[in-house]
Specification:
The complex is a heterodimer of chains A (107) and B (113). Chain A has no helices and 11 strands. Chain A has 107 residues and is mainly β. In chain A, strands 2, 4, 5, 6, 9, 10 and 11 form a 7-stranded mixed β-sheet that branches. Chain A starts with a strand and ends with a strand. The model of chain A has no long low-confidence stretch (mean pLDDT 97). Chain B has 113 residues and is an all-beta fold. In chain B, the strands form 2 sheets. In chain B, strands 2, 4, 5, 6, 9, 10 and 11 form a 7-stranded mixed β-sheet that branches. Chain B has a 4-stranded antiparallel β-sheet with strand order 1-3-8-7, with no helix packed on it. Helix content of chain B is 0%, strand content 51%. Chain B is globular and about 40 Å long. Chain B has no helices and 11 strands. Classes of the chains: A mainly beta (107), B mainly beta (113).
Chain lengths: 107, 113
């Protein structure tokens, strides 16, 4: 199975900060990567698909990049509602796999 | 508006069975693949199973293969997850998802004696 390794696993930031989360795949997966946001007690929400395409209705402060094995999710100016846990996912092959998650807390 | 309404979770003893249901509305159900994902309390996301729009292609995680069965009824706009031989490590919130765009509200499955 393809392993997706996210970093960092958690960190603190302030509203207005620019933050970047990285995800590394254990093998080449082209651009078959999605990013999700999950708030406590809620279902995940799709943010980015195809490594860099913004899902409908997602604010433009979210962006994704990368291809091959290295991917990033960037939030350009953090807002209060962005403090949540973020997951990457590869859908290049089965079994589809998720990263372990990155928890983003308010500093 | 896309809605995925889940039902069927609960408490079951090890070795028992449960059937989860996910009823869809707001889109043409028979044109989308569907997925099940689970999340143990306080843990990350784990893909469980996927089924194509016409049920031709079905996939399972190794952790559930041979015990869980995914199915769908396009006439009823529903996807199901039949879970047999349940183990304590199957305890989790289970989510259905329309491809990966929309998710159900989740349902808790607890396996404990």
């Amino acid at each position: 199975a393809i392993r997706m390794t996210q970093s960092p696993s958690s960190f603190s930031a302030s509203p207005g900060d620019r933050v970047t989360i990285t995800c590394r795949a254990s093998q080449h997966i082209s651009s078959f990567v999605a990013w999700y946001q999950q708030r406590p007690g809620k279902a995940p929400k799709l943010l980015i698909f195809g490594a860099s395409s913004l899902h409908n209705g997602v604010p433009s402060r979210f962006s994704g990049s990368g291809s091959g094995t290295d991917f990033t999710l960037t939030i350009s100016r953090l807002q209060s509602e962005d403090f949540a846990t973020y997951y990457c996912q590869q859908y290049y092959s089965y079994p589809q796999t998720f990263g372990q998650g990155t928890r983003l807390d308010i500093k | 508006e896309v809605q995925l309404l889940q039902s069927g979770g609960g408490l079951v003893k090890p070795g028992g069975s449960l059937r989860l249901s996910c009823e869809a509305s707001g889109f043409t159900f028979n044109t989308y693949s569907m997925n099940w994902v689970r999340q143990a309390p306080g843990k990350g996301l784990e893909w469980v199973s996927s089924i194509s729009s016409n049920s031709v292609y079905i996939y399972y995680a190794d952790s559930v293969k041979g015990r869980f069965t995914i199915s769908r009824d396009n006439a009823q706009n529903s996807v199901y997850l039949q879970m047999n031989s349940l183990r304590p490590e199957d305890t989790a919130f289970y989510f259905c998802a329309r491809e990966w765009e929309d998710w159900g509200q989740g349902t808790l499955v607890s396996v404990s004696s």
